Prior knowledge:
GO molecular function: heme binding; metal ion binding; oxygen binding
Keywords: Heme, Iron, Metal-binding, Transport
Order of helices and strands: HHHHHHH
CATH superfamily: Globins
Number of domains: 1
CATH topology: Globin-like
InterPro entries: Globin-like_sf (IPR009050), Globin/Proto (IPR012292), Hemoglobin_trunc (IPR001486)
Binding site for heme: 57, 82
Pfam family, one: Bac_globin
Bound molecules: protoporphyrin IX containing FE
Amino acid sequence: MQTGEPSPRRIFEPLCGKIGRDxxxxxxxxxxxxLRTDPMLHGFFDGIADFAGHESHIADxxxxxxxxxxxxxxxxxxxxxxxxxxxxxxxxxxxxxxxxETLTEYLPIELAAQWLKMAEAIAANLQRHTL
Length: 131
Ligand code: HEM
């Protein structure tokens, strides 16, 4: 039996650590700037008065979803916020396409792919409950 050698093990590092909060904020800021000017989706966001507040709320959501913690925990109500928006499969597809484009612009391909995978899973769940 070998001694003194650490057994090989998978070191788990959550995505939040690999991406970092600054890049989460950058991605969200760029993504919502895109959403607000997108011909298909901008109308959903026109009514938001405090957009900076909205972006920081969304960035906090993703920070937690990616494994991070917040100094001041916040409540999220994903289903409640999306119910009644009359979302369509085409709107979801557009949202995901734009999110994927933003991710690949700001992150290395592997990190972008992992984050997008999470967004796709959340979107699929949202669609099941809101369409
Ligand atoms: C058709 C696609 C989508 C549209 C048009 C849309 C639009 C919106 C709107 C209008 C709000 C409410 C803003 C407010 O009143 O403060 C919101 C909230 C939010 N959205 Fe979406 N959304 C879409 C898909 C998604 C997806 C796929 C995700 C995540 C993967 C997401 C994440 C969030 C989060 C985290 C919030 C805040 C929830 C909370 O306040 O607790 N959205 N979205």
